[in-house]
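Onboarding guide, step 5: your first structure request.
Type a short instruction followed by the sequence, for example:

Predict the 3D structure of this protein.
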Amino acid sequence: MMPKTDMFYRLVFGIIFVATLVGCGPMDRNGMTLDTYESPSSEALVREIIHALPDPNPGVVKSYSLALGEIVLGRDYTPASQPFLNRFSDLKLRLVSATVLTTTAPDNIIVDPELRVAVFLIQIRSMKQTGGDAWEYEIGWSYKKHFQRQTWKVTGTNGSYRAEPGAVLEGNWKS
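The system replies with structure tokens like these:
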């Protein structure tokens, strides 16, 4: 029979272990936690991407949403937090949490459930620091049946960030 103190220590160790795992949060393939994606450099990049997105349906109302990390079949993707989405309120665009998105038949197009319109889903797929204030990103976007995945470089100087597009890795959008 095990003494009560051993059981107590095992219980405490178990609680600490579980709390540590829960505190880690989702991570990317390089071991970076996805909450670190919500940085000033990512904000500058998302602003540039929104500005550069094509308009396949001119004049049609659109919503935007942001996912962090890889989207893996059979697993939910990680939505950007509401405080991060709120940083873009000055753009006067409808940004909705990826947690509320739904699809519509027959083509399983991702839609904003409130407005029932197609959503530009922007995905910060990966982020890697290459220098003091320099980052490499892999970004994807989709809208209806259109999509593109591309590399980007973001550099910062004195709190100001500049995003530069890199190679298009895949996609069906032809500009």
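Each response can be followed by summary notes, for example: Strands lie at 63-68, 78-79, 94-95, 102-104, 109-112, 117-131, 134-143, 146-157, 160-171.
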